[in-house]
Amino acid sequence: MLAFTLRRLVVALSVALTVSLIAFVLLHLSGDLATSIAGPEASPAQVAQVRQEYGLDRPLTVQYLDWLWRAVHLDFGNSFYFRTTVASIIAERMPVTMTLGAISLMISLVIAVPLGIIAAVFKGTLIDRLALTFCVLGQAIPTFCLGLGLIIVFAVNLRWLPVSGTAGWMNYILPSVALGWYAVPAVMRLSRNGMLEVLSADYIRTARAKGLSPAVVVLKHALRNAIIPVVALAAVQFGFMLGGSIVVEAVFSMHGVGHLAWEAIARNDFPVVQAVVLILAAIYITLTFVADVINALLDPRMRVA
Amino acid sequence: MALLEVQNLVIDIPTDAGVLHAVSGISFSLERGETLAIVGESGSGKSLTSLALMDLLPRRAQRKADRIAFDGTDLQSISASGMRKLRGNRMAMIFQEPMTSLNPSYTIGNQLMEALTCHRRVPAKEARDRAIHLLEKVGITAADKRMGQYPHQLSGGLRQRVMIAMALMCGPDLIIADEPTTALDVTIQAQILHLIADLQKEFGMAVILITHDLGVVARVADKVGVMYAGRLVETGSARDVFKDPRHPYTRGLLECIPVPGRTQPGMPLGAIRGQVPNLIGKLEGCAFRNRCDFAAGECAGTIPLAAPTPAHDVRCVRLPALEATA
């Protein structure tokens, strides 16, 4: 188990390094940074001064290593727009996005996994068809539509929940449902298929032949094997939620990282864009790593791989 | 009273092409401590018969019978929870795929102990001790260490031994072994069969052994039922069936295996021509007649039981004519 974890860690770190390299190179391919920073009306002398000030006259490898070294220490430089460090802006925005993502993931798992199990156990019955219909409807509604619909019903008409902002926990309910909903169909389908496959396995027949009750057969013997692919999917979905929270953050006026990324791109605020890309990638890689470890804990056969 | 009594068991499976008559009316009984071998080709309905006794048939298969009784209890009128109390407790099953019949996510020990604790309130320590004791009984060394291992860490032969130990956990009256050696190496096959036979003697269980290996049957069975296309074509004591096979199908089967003393070296073994008939739709007459060398017009009618001796039943209308020429 330890050897497995270490191996996965090495893989995760090399992926992170590759991503950082790509993020760095892409930014430098997007044009002359010194010119963009100095602005369109700057004289050649001013551009040259900017180039020297920001260290852009050094060789690319040196610039990369220097940037990477500082990024590892969470020093992403200063924002071009906000006169403060990138790290402090992100630190301020991150909790909103993380909270939103975590609650959304929880909501989608709590709805989708039991629904998938029930649909599989009652395969081919009305219950199964209702669950699948629910799924298709879920996939058909875009996040922003659902978000606006939720606002109209629960915030404007019923006045149960606030319309927007991040003042308290009540503010997170509607956006989390809107964002979490997006993952429900995929997770539900995977749980259902995983469960169906496992339920026809020989060891399920063995479990029934032992005289175990249907609840023990499904919840002990089947669920643990059926849930393995769902763990991996949940990790990926969480990554999507963090990246995809841009729309929800916009609809509900929440100042999270998604919103920040959108602002930064609009304002050519390169250090912020670069840092957001890198941090989201790092989170994604961490999630995948965690999913691998959980899978290995669930399925002893994977610990060798 | 017989431990197990089956009268006129029918298993129908609805398919898109029509109803598949997998088993069409078989009857047999089994006393305590007895071994019944059911032999037949793949698709003869022998595995479905064993699943039907445990009430583990696939959902779409339909089971009907005049009577299925286990130790006097009618298994057709019993509740689902009543059946669960019997299953694994008083009647246990060993399956033919040891590689996939154990749950990959739980340790051997967990799966063994569960077989006992789901039927009886016993302390974990007692369940563990019994599991280790039975692992040793089925010939697994370092049983204590095996308890903590996962199925993928064991070979096929070891896994089948674990399955046997699991079936023994509650001390059942009946063990149904559905081709327990098919997936194993030839050398391991003999070991496993001897093991089952020894354990049966030691614990006094009744055994239903489903197999297509006649050599095995000759060694371990008390009674034999020869199944063909969902029917029992010949039943009797192992001795009678092997010494004096009467049904043309049984004879054909016995000619397919080498027998020391009877088969001369270099002599070709027999083979039964043709193929097992399609069992979809209405079935009439003897199902073997299209492959039988002795078939005649009367074989297309209903086939009553011809009973030459009280304990040896044969379903063949040509029997008198056949035995007259022999």
UniProtKB/TrEMBL annotation, chain A:
Residues making up the signal peptide according to the UniProt record: none
GO molecular-function terms, A-Z: dipeptide transmembrane transporter activity
TM stretches of this protein: 102-122, 134-157, 169-188, 230-252, 272-298
SUPFAM superfamilies found in the cross-reference section: MetI-like
Subcellular localization(s) per the UniProt record: Cell membrane
Membrane topology: Multi-pass membrane protein
Domain ABC transmembrane type-1, first and last residues per copy: 94-291
PROSITE patterns: ABC_TM1
Keyword Transmembrane helix part of the UniProt annotation: yes
InterPro entries, alphabetized: BPD_transp_1_N, MetI-like, MetI-like_sf
Listed Pfam families: BPD_transp_1, BPD_transp_1_N
Keywords recorded for this protein, A-Z: Cell membrane, Membrane, Transmembrane, Transmembrane helix, Transport
GO CC annotations, alphabetized: plasma membrane
Alphabetical list of PANTHER family matching this protein: DIPEPTIDE TRANSPORT SYSTEM PERMEASE PROTEIN DPPB-RELATED
Recorded family membership: Belongs to the binding-protein-dependent transport system permease family.
Protein name: Peptide ABC transporter permease
Organism annotation: Azorhizobium oxalatiphilum
From TrEMBL, chain B:
Compartments where found: Cell inner membrane
Name of a matching Pfam family: ABC_tran
Keyword Transport: yes
Keyword terms: ATP-binding, Cell membrane, Membrane, Nucleotide-binding, Transport
GO cellular component terms, A-Z: plasma membrane
Example GO biological process: transmembrane transport
UniProt xrefs under InterPro entries: AAA+_ATPase (IPR003593), ABC_Ni/Peptide_Import (IPR050388), ABC_transporter-like_ATP-bd (IPR003439), Oligopep_ABC_C (IPR013563), P-loop_NTPase (IPR027417)
Keyword Signal attributed: no
Membrane disposition: Peripheral membrane protein
Gene3D superfamilies reported in the protein's UniProt record: P-loop containing nucleotide triphosphate hydrolases (3.40.50.300)
A single MF term (Gene Ontology): ATP hydrolysis activity
Domain ABC transporter: 4-254
Family the entry assigns: Belongs to the ABC transporter superfamily.
Protein name per Swiss-Prot or TrEMBL: Peptide ABC transporter ATP-binding protein
